[in-house]
């Protein structure tokens, strides 16, 4: 057997066609120090892993309002209002590949078995890093676009993941007008204009003030906490946990630290010697930077459905840092249980017989069960000093 053929057999024989264990899927991604890891930590694997044609759920977004006072001996006229709303989110398909050339195998040096192990590890690491980075940037923080994220027939037939800025948006319009999501259109199959319970929390801050941002963050921390019904009735209640994390750009975190220093006259860290605010929190909620938010084009401009970066003073409406309060008990990164890193058989193109490719597919999306338990704090004027 030639070395290339031997390596091909080794590569296919030492990895499963499916990574179908719920625990293995979570562990595999959770080793990556990204926002995606935050979304998976502490989640029930059976909640993260689903299958079927689309991602479905049923939500109660409004009150049936059937409770009433009554008089002794009075007659009743019972009704059966339909208050359960169906949620329907399509799968997004992501593909990457592991490709190698016979020449890399034939011209190896040293022990063949060790070379096989090293090459396989390098090729798989490249594929993992590429796909996870893509999910983090183009998936979690992709520019909101109705035509590719929600429309029944996506543009070009390519479905994009539903991003965080699609689910947690600062637009004031009741219909959550984002990237073509105009009045009457749906988000996860639900119209936010018709179902006001299907809107996230919003709060502005005065970008010219040194203290207003702190007040707005405190306000949002309270808005995103919903007290549940008595114990034992949890299946009927809102989620009672605080948001798991507040996400912002690195610049937004540094800007916030400056505002925190401006309202006190003593440094508070390392014996009052250090002016930093390490690991800042708001009501115990960690405030963490997301690197990609620095350059992500997900913030609205004066032009309809056109987005720019948060620091674009010439384009973005009210330039300045945004703070995403994420209740991750209600927002999920969902993976198809049968199509997480599915490895297709190795292929060799006829025009390049010495190159071999293994395509690897992933079906996934981000879904929300309650938009109103997450929110965004954003400036009402350009933030000074940002």
Q: What report would you give on this structure?
A:
- This protein has 386 residues and is an alpha+beta fold.
- The chain has one domain: phage-related protein like fold, CATH 3.90.1690.
- Helix content is 25%, strand content 20%.
- The protein is built from ten helices and 15 strands.
- The protein has helices spanning 3-13, 22-30, 35-40, 45-48, 102-106, 112-140, 146-149, 164-167, 212-223, 250-262; strands at residues 49-50, 54-60, 84-90, 92-101, 201-205, 245-248, 281-282, 285-289, 299-300, 307-308, 323-326, 331-336, 342-343, 355-368, 375-379.
- Strands 5-15-11-6-8-7 form a six-stranded mixed β-sheet. Strands 1, 4, 12, 13 and 14 form a five-stranded mixed β-sheet that branches. Strands 2-3 form a two-stranded antiparallel ribbon.
- The longest helix has 29 residues, at 112-140.
- Mean pLDDT is 77; it is low at 16-22 and 232-240.
**How many domain modules?**
1
First-to-last CA distance? 63 Å
Task: Please count the helical segments.
Answer: 10
N-to-C SSE string, H for helix and E for strand? HHHHEEEEHHHHEHEHEEEEEEEEE
